[in-house]
Amino acid sequence: MPGWAPVLGPVLRVAVVLVPALKASRMAAHSMASRALKNPYRDHDGSAACSQGLFDQHGGVLQLELTADFAGRLRSKISELLSHMENGLKSADPRDCSGYTGWAGIALLYLHLHSVFGETSYLQRALDYVNRSLQRLTRRTVTFLCGDAGPLAVAAVVHHRLQKSQEAEECVSRLLKYHQDVVKGSRNLPDELLYGRVGYLYSLVFVNQQFGQEKIPMQYIQQICDAILASGESLSKKRRMQQQSPLLFEWYQEYYVGAAHGLGGIYYYLMQPDFGVGEERLQGLVRPSVDYVRQLKFPSGNYPPCIGDSRDLLVHWCHGAPGVVYMLLQAHKVFGGDGYLADALQCGEVIWQWGLLQKGYGLCHGTAGNAYTFLALYKVTGDPKYLYRACKFAEWCMDYGKHGCRTPDTPFSLFEGMAGTIYFLADLMQPQKSKFPAFEV
């Protein structure tokens, strides 16, 4: 049947392309499924009935309000989990001052609860915990989440709210003493969020935002961005990667991609307005580097933990789509076009399917951290589907401990444990004001 050849030829060529892609997609799904629990919720279908009992629409799509019943359920669960957390913290490591797993993280939670609910008792609890943290500073690490900058920044804000101006000024002064070491990269300081320059940068931004003024001059922030850019350019040239990515960053000899240690988190900050990067460097250095990260996307829509890692496994804020989405949304705001937003929306689909993690309910690598993706997408798009998804992940979190998830090493901490889940549930009370803690600006 020679007449079939012209028809079969293209079909076979397409099959050769599609079969490996489909196989890779199935393998990725299997890999992610081994780390996630099946999403039991039906997705938003666009109808008001679908979100009934969760939120009501008054005015525009960005004026959706949680129903009194759902808000009440959130408040009740927050109170319940707080009581459980406080009891559990009696056996926590007394030496851990950090925001990630220690006392500064608990202080940040109570500071946030004071912002949401306005109860002065929360502010007093924040003071108690941050004072505990200040007594245990590392004197080694300078970042918000894993070093001394976080406790000092949180303490400055707590004292400011308590109208203790002298104590607040002292904390800000101590915070700024690290600045020159950060700019110069003393002790081989990396550039990422948890242990590097961006982690210190966030501390300065946090103080300014919480004080509601330029408490720390923007030139300090600009100098750190200049140092980050110089570091990224230098490594890219050293690795001969300038054509693919004018900026390149490493941590522990790996080129991480996600929010916690990698490119996505760093580029998110370099694209912030008023940080002093400037249009020329945005277009010439940052944008092509962001576009390089986009090319690393798996067929599933997820992202690898490191450049060169072909395993489509992790759907966490720290590694994978839930952290990269913030870079993509910021690129959409700064550069426009449809591509960045389309990639961000694809992240949302990955997380809806594979984001209920067996690792637990925390922020760094848990369901609460993944749920923040939906709040970020909702704030940009105004699509009720994303607020609905955030609410359904919150319902999952409100069944804390009932899914057979792994117990984290620090089960009551901000980034691994229960404190982070409480933080998310409180943020959901005011979706338009929500921000992933210690990261989103």
TrEMBL record:
Its EC number is 2.5.1.18. Coiled coil: none annotated. GO terms for molecular function: glutathione transferase activity; metal ion binding. GO terms for cellular component: cytoplasm; plasma membrane. Keywords: Cell membrane, Cytoplasm, Membrane, Metal-binding, Signal, Transferase, Zinc. Residues 1-24 form the signal peptide. CDD domains: euk_LANCL. GO terms for biological process: carbohydrate metabolic process; peptide modification. It is found in: Cell membrane; Cytoplasm. It catalyses: 1-chloro-2,4-dinitrobenzene + glutathione = 2,4-dinitrophenyl-S-glutathione + chloride + H(+); RX + glutathione = an S-substituted glutathione + a halide anion + H(+). It comes from the Eukaryota. Zn(2+) binds at residues 318, 364-365. Gene3D superfamilies: 1.50.10.10. It is a peripheral membrane protein. The keyword DNA repair does not apply. Belongs to the LanC-like protein family. This is Glutathione S-transferase LANCL1. It comes from Scleropages formosus.
